[in-house]
Amino acid sequence: MNLNDKVAVVTGAASGIGKQIARTYFDNGAKVAIADLDLAAAQAAARELDPSGERALAVAMDVTSEEQVEAGIAAVAAKFGGIDVLVSNAGIQIVNPVESFDFGAWKKMLAIHLDGAFLTTRACLKLMYAQGRGGSVIYMGSVHSKEASKLKAPYVTAKHGLVGLAKTVAKEGAAHGVRANVICPGFVRTPLVEKQIPEQARELGISEDEVVKNVMLKDTVDGEFTTVDDVAQTALFLAAFPTNALTGQSIVVSHGWFMQ
Ligand code: NAD
């Protein structure tokens, strides 16, 4: 499977899972846009991939801003000649019990995960439909698209919501050869997760080691973290898959934490 001559936009690709997906797409032939809130980190990631700038581009984008998403996607299409793959990956985590969850924090979570997915999808679909060469839209869900955990109400709500969006885009996009799927990783040791370990230890009144063993990895088949590469290989498979046969699905990559 390769992505030769394909153009991919990955949001939140200055760090963690998105960064590895960008690298994997690049290594498999794609032209890659690294869209992130943190422009300096996005520029560094793009330089790491391709110092010449021919096949890697950094784009400043807050995925919750309609204006920035429209401008960013247009800039990618102008530089690389269209868009074939969108990975809507940007995300954050805020943990708190429901009864004391701050309303502003709730809205911020839904905006990044859901508004961001909608805005980037809308901008890319318009281009994909007009280009007439199909496309692949991939949402970064989570085991929390299927399961709940304490303290993560807006995250679980938003990640479940992405499954609905993917199924709708799969139905609407089929006539244009555009597929939509969700990747649902288990815990991956990125900055997003490293930040949660002490926060959850405090909230649950247990040690950080117990958070890892008894909360995060308790239900896996082997006590292992999922890796950025595990997720990136799945993203490559979904991006390169050639037909509408694989659409509207959510694929769980979690060391068996959740089995569907
Ligand atoms: P990360 O913190 O390493 O990277 C997230 C990136 O998103 C950062 O570069 C950040 O600058 C960017 N970002 C944040 N808000 C943004 C915004 N408004 N607009 C544009 N970019 C923004 O996190 P990660 O662990 O790589 O997470 C990536 C995705 O994977 C998220 O959607 C997350 O929910 C999901 N996920 C992570 C795990 C895990 O265990 N790490 C598990 C399942 C799903």
UniProtKB/TrEMBL annotation:
Q: Where are the transmembrane segments?
A: none
Q: Name one GO biological process term.
A: monocarboxylic acid metabolic process
Instruction: Name a GO molecular-function annotation.
Output: 3-hydroxybutyrate dehydrogenase activity
Q: Which InterPro entries match?
A: 3-OHbutyrate_DH, NAD(P)-bd_dom_sf, Sc_DH/Rdtase_CS, SDR, SDR_fam
The family line of this record is: Belongs to the short-chain dehydrogenases/reductases (SDR) family.
Name of protein: 3-hydroxybutyrate dehydrogenase
Source species, please?
A: Massilia forsythiae
